Amino acid sequence: MASLDKPPVGTTTARWRFPDIHPEGRKYVLIAGAIAFLSLFVWDFITWPLVFLTVGVAAFFRDPVRVTPQGEGLIVSPADGLITMIERVPLPPELRGPQALGEARMVRVSVFMSVFDVHVNRTPIAGTIRHVIYISGKFMNADFDKASDENERQHFVVEDRAGLRVGFTQIAGLIARRIVAFTKAGDMVVAGQRIGLIRFGSRVDVFLPEGYAAEVALGQRAIAGETILARRSGTQAVGVAQ
């Protein structure tokens, strides 16, 4: 029997640390910091507001380590934020067809990211990225349902080794002006791997395959790469940090 006062063999002690700043955001932090520094010699009365702005920019691009549940039949959240929609809907045109997700309606789980959330997005399953489709569009509030069809967006389809395909969509919001992809079609990814980010408030939709039930509720907060959005019955999970 394992001792109750000792950790299992092979484990280490976990410690909190400041999250890294993603490389995509470092230039913006440097620009904001430089402006704050120069203001000391020109308009010193705005230096402190600019310092706070620099801290805010750094916080927006923070990229914390996440412990991703591993196991067959799990779909993890690709984004931090609030679960705002869980409903069965028609697929977007870009995700229809035999080479994508088919034609049947699917349950869509929407995660809304405010400007205070981590904006690095992660893949919900391990596998091969089959499609990355970028669509230009409007910049209305990403919390609106019609934003799925009218806003700037980027669709992904990931296929696992068993042939299961999961589609998800990055949707730009009212303030967001750019979707950045870190991966391309043909890349192999592990569950919870960073695949892109959306700047300054947005939404990510995940389309659940048949046989998967949502594990989240409306109003719940999700954590990218950690929260299990859906699972197939009879599955278990262990965690891997990334």
Automatic annotation (TrEMBL):
Sorted UniProt keywords: Cell membrane, Decarboxylase, Lipid biosynthesis, Lipid metabolism, Lyase, Membrane, Phospholipid biosynthesis, Phospholipid metabolism, Pyruvate, Transmembrane, Transmembrane helix, Zymogen
Pathway stated in the Swiss-Prot or TrEMBL entry: Phospholipid metabolism; phosphatidylethanolamine biosynthesis; phosphatidylethanolamine from CDP-diacylglycerol: step 2/2
Chief localisation class: membrane
Coiled coil: none
GO biological process per UniProt: phosphatidylethanolamine biosynthetic process
InterPro entries per the UniProt record, alphabetical: PS_Dcarbxylase, PSD-A
Active site: S202
Pfam families: PS_Dcarbxylase
Catalysed reactions, semicolon-separated: a 1,2-diacyl-sn-glycero-3-phospho-L-serine + H(+) = a 1,2-diacyl-sn-glycero-3-phosphoethanolamine + CO2
PANTHER family, per the entry: ARCHAETIDYLSERINE DECARBOXYLASE PROENZYME-RELATED
Name this polypeptide is given: Phosphatidylserine decarboxylase proenzyme
Cofactor note: Binds 1 pyruvoyl group covalently per subunit.
Required cofactor names: pyruvate
Modified how: Is synthesized initially as an inactive proenzyme. Formation of the active enzyme involves a self-maturation process in which the active site pyruvoyl group is generated from an internal serine residue via an autocatalytic post-translational modification. Two non-identical subunits are generated from the proenzyme in this reaction, and the pyruvate is formed at the N-terminus of the alpha chain, which is derived from the carboxyl end of the proenzyme.
GO terms under cellular component: plasma membrane
Annotated site, Cleavage (non-hydrolytic), chain positions: G201, S202
Function as written in the Swiss-Prot or TrEMBL entry: Catalyzes the formation of phosphatidylethanolamine (PtdEtn) from phosphatidylserine (PtdSer).
GO molecular function ontology, one term from the record: phosphatidylserine decarboxylase activity
Species in which this protein is naturally found: Sphingomonas xinjiangensis
Localization (cell): Cell membrane
Top EC class for this record: lyase
Signal peptide boundaries: none
Its EC number(s): 4.1.1.65
Modification Pyruvic acid (Ser), positions: S202
Keyword Lipid metabolism: yes
